Amino acid sequence: MPTLSAGNLIDDAFIVRNPGGMAVTVPTGYQNPLPTDHIRFYISRTYSLTNPDAPLWEGAIGTGTFTVPVADVRDISPDAVYAYYILSDEVGNVSALSAAQGLGVRFAPLPVLDPPVIPLARDETDQLIDLKDCRETGGVTIELKRVPDILGTDEVRFMWNNEEVQVLPFNTLDPLISTVPYDTIFTDYYKDGVDTETDVPVKVECILLRNTTIISRSSRDIFSNLYYPGPVNPVDPNPVNNELEAPHITSTAVNDVLEPEDYNKEATVAFDLWVDPDKPVKAGQQIFGEYAGQRFGPEFVTDGQTEVTMGLPWALINSGGLGGNKPLQYFVSDIGGVNENPSPITQVTNNALVIEMKAPEIDREYPGENIILCSDLTAAGYGAVVKIPGNTEHLLLGRKVTLRAQGYRNAAMDDLSPGTAFTSPIAHEIVGTEPADGFEMELEPYNPYIRNIPVPPPTPIPDPPGQYIGYWKIWYEVEINGTQYPSDEFTSIINLVNVVGEYCEDQ
Questions:
Q1: What is the CATH number of the domain that holds 146?
Q2: Given this model, what pLDDT does residue 376 score?
Q3: Are 63 and 35 spatial neighbours (Cβ–Cβ below 8 Å)?
Q4: How many domains is the chain partitioned into structurally?
Q5: Would you say which domain of life the source belongs to (predicted)?
C-alpha cells in the first residue's frame, strides 16, 4: 500500500499543507528490488491491472519516494477513491496490484479568469497604447474582473509581454487593478532597438496564483506606440519637452503681450526647430499650434528646415479671453502619426481689447437744447438719475460698473469746477436682465457734486443778470479682468441758477 502525505482527503487544505506537491512512499522490501524497477502510480475510480486511465505518476522507483506536482494533484478526477501502484522490471515482469489506500477528492471549483481589460485600449477601434494614454491621470492600467471561486488570498501576476508588472492579492477587490509603469512600456517598446517607429504587439497576461500554483491564465492582445519625431523628451511622458524651443508671438511691440493696437489682427507665432542628425527635421512632419486650448495650423516642414512661423487667427485670440497666462504651445508629429512631441509652454498676456459702450443718459425736459435744469434732477435732494444702456457684449452678469462725473466752468472743459469729481462709492454689480435692458445709477449728493458745477452768481446780482451755467461730463466704467474700461461720455450744459441768483433748493 502506498503512503501519501498526511490526510486521506485530497482538497484545497491538502494543497496548503503540501505546497511542494504530494509526497508518495512505496515499500521497497519486495523480492529482488532494483532502483531501475518501474512504477505506475494511480489515484483513480478504477482499481484494476487494466486501468484505462493514465498513471498519475510513473518512473523509476529509486528510493521508493517521489513527489506528484501540485498541478497534477489538482487534475485528479473528483470521483477517484483508490491510491495504488503496479511494478514492472526491465525484462517486462509485472507485479500484482498493490494494496489500495482509500481516499476522497474534494477540490473546490477553480476560478477561470476573464480576459483582462485595458481601459485606455478597450475599444475595438482603439487597441493602441500611445503617449497620450501614458499621460492620462492614473496612467495605463490593467483591470481584472473578479470571477466566481476567487479566494481573497489568491494573487495575480500581471504581465506586459515578458515583463512582470506587479503581483497583487485579490483580497475583496472587484476589479483588481494594476498600474503599468511608463518605464515598463518604454523598455518593452524599444526592446528591438531605439529606431522603432511602428506599432509593437503587446500580450497583456494575468496569471492567477493560489499559493505558488498557477490555477488560471487569461490574456488580451493590444499594441503600443511611443514614437514621435524630434528630440527625445528625457522626462516622458511629461506633456512638455524642454529639448524643443519655446514659441513666441513676435508680431507685437513686446513679445507675447497683445495690446489694444493688436485688436482684431492675426498674430505671428515663431520658433526655431531642433537640430538632431539622428532624428532630423524632414518632409512628412507637421506642426500644430495651440493657444489657450485651441488648435491652429498645421504647418508642414521640409528637409532641414530651421524655423517656423505660424499665423494665430484673431478669432482664437479673442475666444481665449483677456488677461495673462494664456498658454501657447506647439506639437510636432508625423503626418498620420499617433504621437506628438510637445514644446515648452509660453504664457501670453492678452490686453487686446477695444470696448465700445454707449454714453449714459439723463432724461431732460429739453433734450434738443442739451441742457440740464433743476427739474431734470429727479433723485432725492436734487440728485441725478443716470441711465446706463444695455450692452450684452460687455455688461455681463456679475461684472461691476462704476459711475464717474466731472464738472467744468467753461465750454472747453478745461476749467474744473471744484469739488465735482464724482466716483460712485459702491460699484453696481450687474444682475438679472440688466445686460440687455440696462439699469439706473444715482449721482448724489447734489451738494457739492452738482451744485458746484455752474459759475456762481455774484453778490449782488447785476442788472441785467448774467448767465450762470456750467458744463458736465458723465461716464461709467466696467471692470473686466481687473481693468476698468470707460464708456463714451455724456456731456451737457447745466443751468441751476435763476435770474435772481437762486439755486435749485431755493427756487
A1: 2.60.40
A2: 98
A3: yes
A4: 4
A5: Bacteria
Cell representation of residue 60: 523509476
Question: Which three cell numbers mark 201?
Answer: 504587439
Please check whether residue 243 lies inside any domain of the structure.
Answer: no
User: What are the E-state strand segments in 26-117?
Assistant: 38-44, 57-60, 65-68, 82-88, 101-102, 104-105
CA distances from 251 to 130, 265, 313 (A): 36, 10, 12
pLDDT of residue 1: 64
| DSSP code of residue 335 | T
**Who contacts 350 (Cβ-Cβ below 8 Å, separation ≥6)?**
258, 317, 320, 321, 322, 323, 324, 326
Residue ranges of the chain whose pLDDT lies below 50: none
Q: Which residues pair with 82 in a beta bridge?
A: 44, 102
Query: According to the model, what pLDDT value does residue 333 have?
Result: 98
DSSP 170-232: -TT-SSEEEEEPHHHHHHHHTTT-TT--S-EEEEEEEEEEETTEEEEEEEEEEEE----SSS-
Are 7 and 87 within one domain? Answer: yes
Query: pTM for the full model?
Result: 0.65
Range of the domain at 197: 119-224
Question: What does the angle CA 415 – CA 418 – CA 420 come to, to the nearest 5 degrees?
Answer: 100
Query: In this structure, are 138 and 54 located in the same domain?
Result: no
What's at 233, amino acid-wise? N
